[in-house]
Amino acid sequence: MALVIAVIALAGCSGIPTQSERQSRAELQTVTRLYRPGDHRPALPALGANTTMATLLTYAMLNQPRVEAAYYDYAAAVEQTTVERSLPDPRLTLELDIQSAVTTVMPGLWVDVPWIKKLRLRADRVSAESQAKYHVFETAVLQTAFEVKRSFYQLHFLDERLLINRETLELVDDMEQTARAQNEVAKVTMQDVLRAQMDQDWLKTDIANLEDLRNPLLAQLKAALGMNAAQPNPPVPARLESTPLDLDGDKLLAVAMERNPRLKAVEAEVRQAEVSIQLAHQSKRPDFNMGVELDAKAVPLMTRPTLGVTLPIWRDKIAAEIAAAQAGKSAAAARLSTEQIQLTADFATKSFAYREATRNVKLLTDSLLPKAKLSLDVARAGYSAGRVDFINLLDAKRTWLEFRLARVDARLQRELALAELSLLIVGLPPAGAPIPASAPSAKESHEK
């Protein structure tokens, strides 16, 4: 009866949370309030005619399955912290002595007790892993936001390319009419008309290709928003919204080193490896087991307590566990250095891409395009007056078209570089992102 009462009492027991576990759960609660309040998906914003970039970003970050999977991986890792710091389940035993009849009935209760510091270190190790999983979740959020922006910018500048090509087609149509009129009065040959018609055919095909490109770009935007095939295509915001970013090089790189979630994830892996080394050293410590058995048939009642201890005698095994943990830390530290080096290189590359695109936009807007337009106007007037041949007129038209399209491409590259710098390299979340304003690193979380 006493054992039954003890088992019933133990059935409602809870362990004592470690400091790292309490910290991890507090951080998870903060993220959950933002991303899955009450473990339910929050209401998604409506997508309508007046949809803005901010609306698309919020919709995507809350709806994207990749983000959801990363969140639940993170939540599962936090829950695993409790599992790792908990004592093993007690065991209920029954021992019988049987001769011609049952002579002894001895129910018992056994408990395995690891060296107490091992449980805390196991919890700390999994807690560091949960921090790495949090930063994977953060990366998924930022990657989703970038994919939305990339798809939107490509669609926006696709419309500009279409507009330019259609305007140019109208110009070539007018040039063809001029060539026909000149040919009718024998000022030029039919060759000029044919050249204009070839240019018309080329532009019509280019316009058809660009119009066809809209469908895959819309599919990319739809995928970034986490929408399935049965859902209608999302609206595309009419207004271009550039990514705000203060491009002070040294200061921005320092922020990237502090905030980049890929870097923070590897830092958490280093912390996890450090705890693994401490845990490996604990293999030198014995574990215990204890129990008690009661002889139910004895009068008076006989109690048989038992205490056991493991003997960590396999020194080569312990040495191998420590060496493996140290090698794991060295590997994590090397990955951290690699990530830091790569982040610096990516920052330099994207910063250059932004500066290059900015210079190209300025050159094309302030100098090349005005001159190309003037050259085209002069060539058109000269052709009508018979002073310029059609080849030179076409060349002036093509130069003007190429410069206009080049400016569109430079503006697109500038926006993509800004978005990638802000989201994927520096790690600045957009407004409404389900990311806490300040998520402590793994080291900070476990040193508090």
Structural commentary:
It contains 11 helices and 4 strands, in the order ααααββααααββααα. The protein has 448 residues and is α+β, with helices and mostly antiparallel strands. The chain has one domain (14-43, 55-238, 255-426): Outer membrane efflux proteins (OEP), CATH 1.20.1600. A 4-stranded antiparallel sheet has the order 1-2-3-4, with no helix packed on it. Strand 1 (91-98) and strand 2 form a beta hairpin. The two termini are 45 Å apart. 32% of the residues are buried. Mean pLDDT is 90; it is low at 1-10 and 440-448.
Total domains, how many? Answer: 1
- Topology as H/E string? HHHHEEHHHHEEHHH
The major β-sheet equals: 4 strands, antiparallel
Q: Which range best describes the helical content: under 10%, 10-25%, 25-40%, 40-55%, 55-70% or over 70%?
A: 55-70%
Number of strands: 4
In CATH, the homologous superfamily goes by the name Outer membrane efflux proteins (OEP)
* CATH class term: Mainly Alpha
Major sheet: arrangement of strands: 1-2-3-4
Q: Which word captures the global form? A: elongated
Q: Give the termini distance in whole angstroms.
A: 45 Å
> Low-confidence parts lasting 5 or more residues at pLDDT below 50?
1-10, 440-448
Q: At CATH's second level, what is the architecture? A: Up-down Bundle
Alpha-carbon Rg, integer: 35 Å
Structural class: alpha+beta
Helical stretch count?
Answer: 11
